[in-house]
Amino acid sequence: MTTTAPPSTGSATAAPAPARHTSDRVRAERRLGWMLAGPAFAVMLLVTAYPIFQAIYDSLFSYRLTDPGNRSFVGLGNYWVVLTDALWWQSFGVTAFITVVTVAVELVLGFALALVMLKALKGLRPILRAAILLPYAIITVVSAFAWQFAFDLTSGFVNSWFAWLPGISAETDWFGQTGTSLLVICLAEIWKTTPFISLLLLAGLAQVPDVLQEAAQVDGATWWQRMRKVTIPNMKAAIMVALLFRTLDAFRVFDSVFIMTAGANGTETVSFLAYRQTIARLEIGLGSAVSVLLFLSVVLIAFGFIKGFKVDLAQARGEK
Amino acid sequence: MRQRRRRRLGTAAVAALALCGLAGCGVSDPGPPTLTWYINPDSGGQAEIAAACTAAANGAYDIEVSTLPRESSEQRQQLVRRLAAGDSSIDIMSLDPPYIPEFAQAGFLAPVPAEVGARAIDGVAQSAIDGATWNDQLVTIPFWANTQLLWYKKSVAEAAGLDMTQPVTWDQLVAAAQAQDTQIAAQGRRAESLVVWFNALIQSAGGEVITQTADRPEDIQLGLDSPQSQRASAVMSEIANSGVVGPAFTTAGEDESVASFENGAAGFMVNWPFVWGRAKSGVEGGTLDQSVVDDYGWAVYPEVDPGTPSAPPYGGINLGVGASSRYPDLAYQATECITSDENQKAYFISDGNPAASLAVFEDPEVIAEFPMAPVIAQSLQQAKPRPQTAYYSEVSGSLQREYHPPTAVSPATGPDAAALIRAVLSGEELL
Amino acid sequence: MSTRERTWWIVAGIGIILYALFPIAWIVSLSFKSASDISNGQFLPTVFTWENYSLILTGDASELFLPALLNSFGICLIATALSCLLAMFAAYAIARLDFPGKKIILSTALAVAIFPVISIVTPLFNLWRQIGLYDTWPGLIIPYLSLTLPISIWTMSAFFREIPWEMEQAAQVDGATTWQAFRKVIVPLAAPGVFTTAIIAFFLAWNDFVYGISLTSTSAARPVPAALGLFSGASQFEDPTGGIAAAAVVVTIPVIILVLFFQRRIVAGLTNGAVKG
């Protein structure tokens, strides 16, 4: 199938079903379908839909876990508190910054990796594939620790290795300022998630018909022209799917921030803010409001992508 | 084939889930009642005490330990979450004193039996008694008491011409460090340790973060907009900006401080007594030269204003008994065993955590092991707890947000912090 | 391809390998440093030591680390098995049957996959406290399903759609019973897809951090990523860099083994259905 044919949502089954005349059979098949798929569907709803509705409900109350006696209904007051708080907007800005920077870099870098993998010699391919998969499969917390220890003043080697660069000396405290802290966080995120993007792009590259490439080559198009006119338009769907998933994933960044800076020096992200209010401060009401706002932001981003860029979700897949 | 096996595995898992049910998987053993003691991480001393007390109880109870996270704020989170759930497995808790009011106020602590309380405060340092008390009621049992000392290199102090037999001030230290081209190590990281430092400064200047505590968050009176608070901010800013702190000062905690003291970068340091235990094990492990340790000196915490005794930080651990514990009486019995002078002494020697009971400091074995024991005892008598309020985590979090980084502290920081604490306590701002 | 071009691609390939392995090599190197080496500012240890490993496997930190490792394995395997089981039926229905609601199920899976975990952890924590699931295995297995189930459904549906199901009928025509036909024909065709899905689902569960730190508080159910934050040095105020590095290496070993053995499958699973019909 080509990339434009939605694979999953159509009713095309691999085995062409015989024409059904009896509505009984149709009904039986429907019932069987729901019987088989129903449990999975129900579990998914139970573990996510119920808690989010509970969070919306909780966010309408002023409620502190250590002070259950003082629980009171405040309507949308918590949302007002959050949205008029500079801290929320700062966290939102930091999250947006991390998202934009990491996704942009990952797209370019991932594309380069995908090209190398496509052209790599047969003998190298398995090694490359295994190497690329490692960052994807490693625990985010482990990756965060590795990058933190590398840049840390006491345990790191970065300062002594890169002391020849202007602005880096043995005494550069990477986690001492906002800018450099965010730089290290972004580096760790990029290292960990570029492989996933590059794999999706590699699959997209493989979809580009060779015939078109050859035709363009015959016409005397340069490599750049071929990229721009043939390769990229033909894998647009793959690019968009990769972008959508990484953007949503990046917007939820939490582990790296938690491990590396614990939110110091203005590196709080929205996820971290929600965690701090609910789990650390036990302010269930306020924290639920932050959680709901985070949820809405993710929904809006997804919606914007799907409507704005016409991402064909039929080709997307549940994937982190 | 594989699929079938997988399916069987899945069925087994479902069965296991069903069997475990909601109570989790546990086997009840008909032995003596098990008391679970939630401990802060140490190098094994509390586990040893638990074993010793279990043996001494002759089958009356069996103490098991469960370790909490490293950061005291996270210890609090874990405990509060379970206590709010009415967890009956929490019998004994090692509590960081600042969070005790919150626990007491929320009704998470079982009341201390009068005679147990009377025995528990007998011969104990005043700061440790204050830290175990809320609303004039003893709510926990003092176990060990911590305080920060001023650590210095004798050679550096001598070269700078400081008389360390007399109390020194922060200003003198800054001048000496500048003259000797050495660093002062303190904890500038955005963590509880920053509040420890700031509170010691404001109390040494004769001020208080909270001047009047109250049950309702709105009624709490703050002393952050006072001349004493300004003085504390000025000292903090002076230390952070006089070129006498290390490059990673704004991310340095206790560990980074002691590392710079050991490698010679810092000639002065404020830190807890674990420094000594670490130095000794460093010499044993061959990572630290004996000559470096021989140069260690110690004194009571620096003063803010000459002639006004300093208010060293008070820390340590008190034992609380969970309100939902099934065996509160046994748990209090166990605390008496745990906090016996003998065990406090053993713990002091094994883990370097100073006793709450003053008699322990006069023990020759302790003094042989910790030559600074008399200074610690004096420091404990002078020490002042951090602000006592049921909303401590909010107060501490706000102070951390405003006073970090210490390099940016200005005269406006105090009023800003006061405004933030008020807003956070009345639920008008996030933290 | 000219020789020059070929050399260029090989260099680029080596660059990728370095890029991927460098941070892993660093954490491995760090885990072999002794306490005095940790702050030497170098990449490699001057003295090679196993002390960090003995600390977490037999020493002071073992009481924290070993139960956590067991919890991680148990919880992740059960969550993976459950989600594969549920997804198997759902994917079969999606691939093979014609019923309204396919689209809803796949869209729901997608929506759940992009869900911010942090948004639902608080209500779950509250509910778990009330019904006694807090700090238990089931209390983590259930939320892990929200991580593993959506991807299992997508990946498995993509695999199942490629199975030539008509072979089953052909076998039955040849005289095999329904069960034989299913076992001899379909199972071998479906097994690789199920297996690949299981690996990817396992990765996701293994990687969890937020649920781990929010829904547990003791060794009863605490998984490794959450336990890493609890290590301490010789005292509460000392940083356990070496111990964390060693623990990080230990939890990475299963992941590396899976990747080395099943890389081709994992890549197929990750990209299957994303851009292929």
Automatic annotation (TrEMBL), chain B:
InterPro entries: SBP
Keyword annotations from UniProtKB, A to Z: Signal, Transport
Superkingdom to which the source organism belongs: Bacteria
Signal peptide location: 1-23
One Pfam entry name: SBP_bac_1
Ranges annotated as spanning the membrane: none
Family the UniProt entry places it in: Belongs to the bacterial solute-binding protein 1 family.
Protein name: Extracellular solute-binding protein
Organism annotation: Pseudonocardia abyssalis
Automatic annotation (TrEMBL), chain C:
UniProt membrane topology term: Multi-pass membrane protein
Record domain ABC transmembrane type-1: where: 69-262
Domain of life the protein comes from: Bacteria
Record's signal peptide: none
UniProtKB keywords: Cell membrane, Membrane, Transmembrane, Transmembrane helix, Transport
Intracellular or extracellular location(s): Cell membrane
Ranges annotated as spanning the membrane: 7-28, 64-92, 104-128, 140-160, 185-206, 242-262
Pfam families referenced in this protein's UniProt entry, alphabetically: BPD_transp_1
PROSITE patterns per record: ABC_TM1
Family, as annotated: Belongs to the binding-protein-dependent transport system permease family.
Protein name: Carbohydrate ABC transporter permease
Gene source species: Pseudonocardia abyssalis
